[in-house]
Amino acid sequence: MKQIFQEAAKGPEVPRGLPVLPDEYQPDFKLVERKPILPSVEEIEHNNRARSAKLRVIEKIK
User: What gap in Å lies between CA 15 and CA 20, rounded to an integer?
Assistant: First the structure.
């Protein structure tokens, strides 16, 4: 899943040396958190199955 999110946030290949990126080369998504959000110790104590949970988030820009 993390490779899919990274690929979506990267956008298309852009020619080198462009001073400003045109809108068609802007990525459609933005990574909200680079690393996964893990459950807190309190959540793990309350819900033991949460220890393996990892939340990954991207935001749709366009």
Answer: 11
pLDDT tens-digit map of 49-61: 999 999 999 999 8
Start-to-end CA distance of the chain, whole Å, equals 21
Q: Give residue-wise pLDDT tens across range 20-30.
A: 877 887 888 99
Q: What is the pTM of this model?
A: 0.66
How much helix, strand and coil, in percent to the nearest 5, is found in the chain? 35, 15, 50
CA distances from 11 to 28, 32, 43, 45, 52 (A): 7, 15, 35, 40, 30
